[in-house]
Design a protein that fits this description.
Blueprint lengths: L13 E2 L2 E2 H8 L2 E5 L5 E5 L3 H24 L7 H17 L7
Antiparallel strand pairs: 1-2, 3-4
Helix pairs in contact: 1-2, 2-3
């Protein structure tokens, strides 16, 4: 996969099938804003070359979460809950230290 920008990094370091460095760059375009009801709104303008890998990774993680729910005999998550859980799982995975750097 070729990505814009020469920020270094190893494309073999994948998170949900996408290069960790690309996902980190995509996530850097996002921010949160607290709403009056106490919830958080996710805001950002992610360039297409970064948004596409981000969406693919979230989709893969969402599929993993739903499959795990089914394996455990639970009703699979869906909709906004699945998207929120997949986003949080992606954040945790992207910010984990890769095993070779630990």
């Amino acid at each position: 996969m070729t990505t814009a920008g020469g920020d270094g990094g190893d494309d073999a370091d994948l998170v949900a099938g996408e290069p960790r460095r690309v996902l980190r760059r995509a996530l850097a375009h996002l921010s949160t804003q607290r709403r009056e009801d106490g919830s958080l709104e996710l805001l950002g303008d992610v360039p297409p070359e970064l948004a596409d890998p981000l969406v693919r990774a979230m989709g893969r993680i969402g599929e993993e979460l739903a499959a795990d729910d089914e394996r455990r005999g639970e009703v699979p998550r869906s909709g906004g809950r699945l998207q929120a859980d997949a986003f949080l799982a992606l954040l945790l995975r992207v910010t984990d230290t890769p095993p070779e750097q630990a």
